[in-house]
Amino acid sequence: MIQRQFYDPGRGAMTCSIEGLEKFDSPGKGRGLRVTRAFQTGELLFSCPAYSYVLSLKERGCYCEFCFTRKEGLARCGKCKKAFYCNANCQRGDWPMHKLECSAMTAFQENWCPSEMARLVARIIAKKKMQTERCASEKILPIGDMQSHVDDVDNERKDMYEGDIAGLHRFYSKHLELPDHKDLLTLFSQIACNGFTIEDDELSHTGTAIYPDVALINHSCLPSVIVTYNGTSAEVRAVQNMKPGDEVLISYIDLLYPTDDRNNRLRESYYFTCDCQECKSKSKDEAKLKVRKRIDPIEPEVISNMTRYARKTIRELRAFKNIKNILLISLNNTELLEMCEQSLEEMGAVFDDSNVYMLHMMYQAMGVCIHMQDANGAIRYGEKILKPYSQLYPPYSLNVSSMYLKLARLYMGIDRHSMGIRAFKKALAIMEVAHGKDHYYLTELRKEMAEK
């Protein structure tokens, strides 16, 4: 029987053994986890609660702030009127954390605007204070064993951390004793490297959390496990058969992109370069960077220029969306769709429709169409994306299952029920491995299929 693991915030290590797993020194990677017995595809290696977590502001009213249950009819906090709960028990359970924000939101009203990371840091500090009151010998920071790379952070990110720290002092200093500036910088850097984004069944962002034990797992572009979420707990399941001695490996990044792009992202965010077998062989790069077939072959220089254009466009779009998320402003969807379509037209002169840069822009265009309630437009893009996704992503990828789910719900919305049921079944087959057959997402999905 698998035992639940617990994190000792004073020592930064697992304190309870997990049957079938052990911590070890991974060559060239530092610490890591490996299995001591065989695990089958879809089998749960372990589950663990979050050390600390926070619900995204845009999901307030849809999810319980305490247990992250998704349902209608949640009860509103009587004081701030902004936090929502399943019942009084969940509200009481969340009060030690919610009280940090409740009166501040009431006082600042629309001027209350800390970032999600600042909100999470405030909760970590508050939780640490509660623990140190019980055990005065613990460290100041609860995740002190995690790498921070604070000295490697570029100026742009340091400026962002400084803004977050200013937000902490502005919105939380009345109810929270904050560490000194250096410790805060370290803590923000640790969370940036080790935090986890909690996502729903369609991979929409619902919150951010810290799972120090899951953070022990190293990266590979050929992952052996996947991390999914059940409420606020993280669950780690095998996505391939594992034998004793195999290292437990997850992917830190989106695996759609070619080797150079993946490693650029790893260096920017995690300060290392991957040397897994896929990064050495680059076996999928040719398919991921496929160019359009023409009678006259396209010159290498033209391909290089278009690749630079695609990467630049993706960076600009990502930065624009990040600003939107931070400021909670609404996008002009028509303009954004025109931007996607213009990029697709330019790239399509060189790239095949299955090229990952084309797929990225199609995915963005699909999302805009969904926001605009243009089901037919969203389906048109989704159907182009689905086959390449299935070929380019690893087996049991949530990116593939979420695409099937999106399409299924779009089909149902325009009364294409047989197509919808087929897409639901495809999503279900992946999610049964990634989430486990008893996950409440699957219960909801089966109910949704039955109702149709």
UniProtKB/TrEMBL annotation:
Annotated GO biological process: heart contraction; methylation
Superkingdom, natural source: Eukaryota
EC annotation from Swiss-Prot or TrEMBL: 2.1.1.354
Gene3D superfamilies associated with the record: 1.10.220.160, 6.10.140.2220, SET domain, Tetratricopeptide repeat domain
Subcellular location: Cytoplasm, Cytosol; Nucleus
Catalytic activity: L-lysyl-[protein] + S-adenosyl-L-methionine = N(6)-methyl-L-lysyl-[protein] + S-adenosyl-L-homocysteine + H(+); L-lysyl(4)-[histone H3] + 3 S-adenosyl-L-methionine = N(6),N(6),N(6)-trimethyl-L-lysyl(4)-[histone H3] + 3 S-adenosyl-L-homocysteine + 3 H(+)
Record domain SET: where: 19-253
Keyword terms of this UniProt record: Chromatin regulator, Cytoplasm, Metal-binding, Methyltransferase, Nucleus, S-adenosyl-L-methionine, Transcription, Transcription regulation, Transferase, Zinc, Zinc-finger
GO molecular function: histone H3K4 trimethyltransferase activity; zinc ion binding
UniProt GO cellular component terms: cytosol; nucleus
Coiled-coil boundaries: none
Ranges of residues in domain MYND-type: 64-102
InterPro entries: H3K4_H4K5_MeTrfase, SET_dom, SET_dom_sf, TPR-like_helical_dom_sf, Znf_MYND
Subcellular location, principal: cytoplasm
Role according to the record: Protein-lysine N-methyltransferase that methylates both histones and non-histone proteins, including p53/TP53 and RB1. Specifically trimethylates histone H3 'Lys-4' (H3K4me3) in vivo. The activity requires interaction with HSP90alpha. Shows even higher methyltransferase activity on p53/TP53. Monomethylates 'Lys-370' of p53/TP53, leading to decreased DNA-binding activity and subsequent transcriptional regulation activity of p53/TP53. Monomethylates RB1 at 'Lys-860'.
PANTHER family in the record: HISTONE-LYSINE N-METHYLTRANSFERASE SMYD, N-LYSINE METHYLTRANSFERASE SMYD2-B
Protein name: [histone H3]-lysine(4) N-trimethyltransferase
Source organism: Channa striata
Source taxonomy: Eukaryota, Metazoa, Chordata, Craniata, Vertebrata
